[in-house]
Design a protein that fits this description.
The protein is α/β, with parallel strands linked by helices and 411 residues long. It folds into two domains: 24-264, TIM Barrel, CATH 3.20.20; 265-405, Lyase, Ornithine Decarboxylase, Chain A, domain 1 (Beta Barrel), CATH 2.40.37.10. The chain has helices spanning 5-15, 24-35, 55-63, 73-82, 100-106, 115-124, 162-171, 189-203, 231-249, 261-264, 299-303, 401-405, and strands at 19-23, 43-48, 67-70, 89-92, 109-112, 129-135, 157-158, 175-180, 211-213, 254-257, 268-279, 286-290, 309-312, 319-325, 337-338, 341-345, 348-351, 358-361, 384-388, 391-396. The strands form three sheets. Strands 1, 11, 12, 13, 14, 17, 18, 19 and 20 form a nine-stranded mixed sheet that branches. The chain has an eight-stranded parallel barrel with strand order 2-3-4-5-6-8-9-10, surrounded by five helices. Helix 6 packs parallel to helix 7 (162-171). It is globular and about 70 Å long.
Length: 411
């Protein structure tokens, strides 16, 4: 992890625990690697800001030239306030936009994710160019919850309904000039490439498409045994596919991808404290209770996801198989589920924890603060800090208890 023991201790001393920390150097390196994605006829890198919408992260990516994939009207507003020009923001939302007219009039790109959304756009902006999201019929994900392609997913216009989409667009004089496809967050690059080939085939049926966005979902290894997607390998394969597409059709498509996890996951961690240690006997388990859990990192409870966990201690201690759990009164508040079995427990070999120990949970830059279950058991939202070459800068204050209650209406 990017934090030294001394810096992690400094985080606890200055900001308390639990506390998110993001590393500027890692963020920049991840973005620059993705910006070098091989392509044949032009390339745009969008950041799927739902992974981590903190203003400091957005500003850093803005300065590096990234564009934005927004998943809601609210995310569009956050991106605008961070300084992104409307033309660099594309709205791809499950829910029909309540601010469609205002967004499009400002220049925000709209990606219709259902026939109804396409109808709404056509009624509001007849004769305009538009993008559509298509479900190509195949997806990829470690669980059904991370798979957003195929017949079990509600995301996008089902590929067999492409004729209806074209007819609807024609009725409103719309030109479908951009197409989007995203299949999920699986680990198999072969499936990803196959889906990309399927998407190119669908784009071939839309003669005015100039830009093909193939989404994100690039796997990031957080713990030993996992393997990150090789963006250069995937890109080289795609480049050849785009060249062959031009040879078949005469059309040179501009490529877009929109990673989230790949850009920010390993640029973040959570600094926490051991608040209790309990066991369930010689045939049971040793549990280390932390002051962080599903409130700050929901992925283990939701998906059975694995995160690295380090006990920071200078003492020589024997290793102990330890299950890490959070502070919530909730049986699912488990930080170390068994690999491949979200219902099981996965003890880690770590220096035997003691109350008061400093603990660092890694891989927490993506879908942690953004997807946290804040205020469960009335715990306040944790602060966020940017680590920049040894310095620490607060980029979100810890929520106060009064702020937890401020929107409640009393008689």
């Amino acid at each position: 992890m990017f934090l030294s023991a001394a810096t992690a201790a400094g985080v606890r001393e200055r900001f308390g625990t639990p506390c998110y920390v993001y590393d500027r150097a890692t963020l920049e390196a991840s973005a620059r690697n993705a910006l070098s994605f091989p392509n044949a006829f032009g390339f745009t890198l969008r950041y799927a800001m739902k992974a981590n919408p903190n203003h400091a992260v957005l500003r850093l990516f803005l300065d590096l030239g990234l564009h934005i994939d927004a998943s809601s009207d609210h995310e569009v507003e956050r991106a605008l306030r961070a300084g992104f020009q409307p033309g660099k923001i594309q709205l791809t939302s499950q829910a029909p936009s309540k601010n469609l007219k205002a967004h499009v009039e400002r220049g925000v790109l709209y990606n219709a994710c259902s026939l109804r959304q396409l109808e709404n756009f056509g009624e509001a902006f007849p004769g305009r160019e538009v993008s559509i999201r298509v479900n190509p019929g195949l997806g990829s994900g470690s669980t059904n919850r991370t798979n957003v392609g195929g017949p079990g997913s509600s995301f996008g216009i089902w590929h067999e309904h492409l004729g209806e989409a074209r007819e609807l667009a024609g009725r409103h004089g719309l030109r479908i000039t951009r197409m989007h496809s995203h299949i999920g967050s699986g680990t198999d690059p072969v499936v990803w490439k196959r889906c990309a080939r399927m998407s190119l085939g669908i784009a071939g049926q839309l003669p005015e498409v100039k830009v093909l966005n193939l989404g994100g979902g690039f796997k990031v290894a957080r713990v030993p045994g996992e393997k990150s997607t090789d963006l250069q390998d995937v890109g080289e394969n795609l480049r050849q596919e785009f060249v062959e597409f031009r040879q078949r059709t005469g059309r040179a498509l501009h490529l877009e991808i929109e990673p989230g996890t790949a850009l920010v996951a390993n640029a973040g961690c959570i600094v926490a404290t051991v608040i209790d240690v309990v066991d369930t006997g010689k045939d049971g388990y040793l549990f280390a209770k932390l002051d962080t859990g599903m409130n700050e990192v929901t992925r283990p409870s939701l998906y059975g996801a694995q995160h690295p966990i380090d006990v920071v201690t200078a003492e020589e201690r024997p290793l102990a198989k330890t299950v890490f759990v959070g502070p919530c009164c909730e049986s699912g508040d488990i930080l170390t589920p068994a690999p491949g079995d979200p219902e099981g427990l996965g003890p880690r070999d770590v220096p035997r924890p003691k109350i008061g120990d400093l603990v660092v949970v890694g891989g927490a830059g993506a879908y942690c603060a953004a997807m946290s279950t804040i205020n469960y058991n009335s715990y306040p939202q944790a602060p966020e800090v940017l680590h920049d070459d040894g310095s620490l800068r607060l980029v979100r204050r810890r929520q106060t208890f009064e702020q937890v209650l401020q929107n409640e209406v009393s008689e």
